[in-house]
Amino acid sequence: MTVIKSLGKLVLSTALVGILIALAIAPVAGVSGIAVARTNETMQSDIQDLTSGDTPGVSTILDAKGNPLAYIYEQRRHPVQPDEISDAMKQAVVAIEDRRFYEHEGVDLQGNVRALWTNLAAGGVSQGASTLDQQYVKNYLLLVNATTDEERQAATEQSIARKLREMRMATDIDAKLSKDEILTNYLNLVPFGNHSYGIEAAARTYFGSDAAHLTVPQAAMLAGMVQSSEYLNPYTNEEGVLERRNVVLQAMVDTGSLSQEDADAYAQEPLGVLDSPATLPNGCIGAGDRGFFCDYVMDYLADKGIDREHLARGGLTVKTTLDPDVQDQALNAVRSHTAPDTEGVAEVMNVIKPGTDSRKVLAMVSSRTYGLDLANNETLLPQPNSLVGNGAGSVFKLFTAAAALESGYGIKDKLAVPKRYEAEGLGFGGAENCPPNKYCVENAGSYASTMTMQDTLAYSPNTPFIQLTEQLGVERIVDIAVKLGLRSYEEPGSYDGESSIADHIKDSNLGSFTLGPTAVNALELSNVGATVASEGMWCEPNPIEEVTDSHGNEVYLKHTPCERAVGKEVAKALENNMTADTEKGTAADSARAAGFSGKAAAKTGTTESNQSSAFLGFNSEVAAAPYIYNDGTTTSPLCTGPVRQCANGNLFGGKEPASTFYTMAARVPDALKGTVPDYDRAYDSGTVSPLIDGLKGKSESQARSALEKAGYVVKTTEVPAPGVGYGKVVRVITGASGTKKGAEVTLQLSDGSAGDSASSGTSGYSYYTPSAPSGNGGGTDNGQPATQSDPLFSQEDVDRLTNDVRDFFGL
């Protein structure tokens, strides 16, 4: 009776096993209403993924010449093609893991009947008979598709349901793929220990080789490790791995892929692994001095739709714009002036290539080392491309100059240069002994009482730019700064978490903006130069040449369209006349000392008390803005030779920052051959339109009549205007609406002065005489013009003296 019951139980169990296997291997689409751990729809999706064979891989970031900058990955895997895997490796894994691989159709019925019978009798899973197809399914669902703990648990649960699900999916992929494709997908997927996934990474990790050149004993070792890659680690369990390797060698004999004689010979060989497992740097930490650029690339890609998770799993190839030669020269230039371990002080510089339809970032450097060791002044902060420091100082005067040129001023117009100027409505404070409700500014040195706008940019007195700010309005200057490149100033919350920096400056009507006292993004400042050098076209800085997926297909990136920031002719006039700083202005000595023989527009800048300093240089090929600032927990004046924190600052934009630019540019061939455009000479005296240009020198009534007839709303103001009779039109200034009908324009009438009425100092006979910068109300500059002095009495000095004599005698 007992025997009969046992036989009956055996027959029933065998029938049940057969039914379960039949259901499991039935085509997914043909088994409606059966849910085995997952819905048919989900399984179909998984099968599509399994068929594709796409696996998480290593994304590689390259420089412009194809050199690797960094590797980004979650699983260190390098997928290869079937012909890139040695035959020995394929034979070894089949011999030890699935001898009937080329005979079954994804599921080994004999083995699975045996395993299922044992598992049913045990009430759970106690024996496995997984084919390579089934192992591929299990590992794929775990290593690729599972993204949550719940999914990872489902992929590895010890249950008959999971086993049946794997069997059904294994038969489906076996019908869709060739055996060689399945074997390749499997070998590209499975873990081999020591953070290596897939056979290519394993070959590199243990043998410093590749999958195509694995020898028989090497292949046998790796095939044996698949069973338990953590336990079978040649660096912690050499004896166990050696024993397992020899088991695989014998299995290869049993399957006919290896002779017994060869197997015995191979079994006598040592494992032959590297002294330590080969690794691959992961993330931007491994990029060295390219780390800041690498981090910027990852942020840029995230903004364009490729987040860090996608990058870490996608196996992408990211070719960047970084020029290794320019990067090296830029880094050498920065660190020759500011050491990496300087306490509390950093210097950054970005090099951008101008262009009217693109804006390649060629280099991004910091004096600091990109890293985690804070004790050695390393940092992960994105210093070169974020708002840092106390400002770029007088570099911001170019925004005022650009606004002035757009409004109708001429680049050769004479501007009054009083020693001190007290402005109303532009904030308050500034220079010492400033009356209440006024903003007071002094020059850091003595200047002639009048200077051309070109020379005010080159020698950088403060007072004419504050007067221009009064006449043009703070809002217009801030708007043009944003258009030219300071885009982060418009970001909501950039000032106090709620309002933007631009809104705060405009709402407070802060005239000090023209003297550059606000934190600055050095990448954006470099791009300001690139915009001017690109005929006034703003383009977003771009570090990416191309992104391709693991199959070599280009990945689409969203791009911000370029847009016009200022008029083409305005930009050309501004750039051309800014070369005076390189040739004779506050940066000329640094240019000569660095051996720079090319052409470059330039502007120096230093903030109050020398707490930061900057330089902007650009031509048709490069634009760069070295920026030195306090980056520690305390802010103090900065000194030169060497750059450091000190009690009484003497660091100016025309010194180390200018020298950094010219040192780099003198050693970059493209920078040396860069050009600066010629410009329309109408911008010497200012040009807006034929009607407006023709009103200069007219009476107020004549000008007003002509303008109102043309539909303009007319305002008037008086300004110092050397050489222009009292009450005569000096120029007509347009507002933000330009020359549109109904726009407001301002008639600037001569107040009859020679330009020194607002001065509390005396006129000099040279454009610039340095003095200690103290309490000047904002930006200061170099303090050392070109040593090739201007003549004691220039033609302009003679003209000015002649006019003064004529005025005195009423001639």
Topology:
Elements (H helix, E strand, L loop, with lengths): L1 H24 L14 H13 L6 E4 L5 E5 L3 E2 L9 H11 L11 H14 L9 H14 L3 H8 L3 H17 L2 H11 L1 E3 L2 E2 L1 H9 L8 H10 L12 H17 L5 H8 L23 H13 L4 H7 L2 E4 L3 H12 L9 E9 L6 E7 L20 E2 L8 H11 L6 E3 L3 E5 L4 E2 L7 E5 L2 E2 L3 E3 H7 L3 H10 L1 H11 L16 H8 L11 E2 H12 L3 E2 L5 E5 L14 E2 L3 H10 L2 H4 L4 H6 L7 E6 L5 E7 L4 E2 L2 E4 L7 E2 L4 E2 L10 H10 L3 H5 L8 H4 L4 H4 L6 H10 L3 E7 L9 E6 L9 E7 L18 E2 L24 H15 L2
Parallel strand pairs: 1-6, 3-5, 12-13, 26-28
Antiparallel strand pairs: 1-2, 4-5, 6-18, 7-8, 7-22, 7-23, 9-16, 10-15, 11-13, 14-29, 17-19, 20-21, 21-22, 21-23, 24-25, 27-28
Helix pairs in contact: 1-4, 1-7, 2-7, 3-10, 3-11, 5-6, 5-7, 5-8, 10-11, 11-12, 15-25, 16-18, 16-19
Can you put this structure into words, describing what you see?
Helix content is about 40%, strand content about 15%. The chain has about 800 residues and is of the alpha+beta class. It folds into three domains: about 1-265, Biosynthetic peptidoglycan transglycosylase-like (Penicillin binding protein transpeptidase fold); about 325-390 and about 520-545 and about 560-685, 3-Layer(aba) Sandwich (Beta-lactamase); about 395-475 and about 510-515 and about 690-780, no CATH class. The strands form ten sheets. Strands 7, 8, 20, 21, 22 and 23 form a six-stranded antiparallel β-sheet that branches. A hairpin with a 5-residue loop joins strand 1 (about 60) and strand 2. The radius of gyration is 37 Å and the shape is elongated.
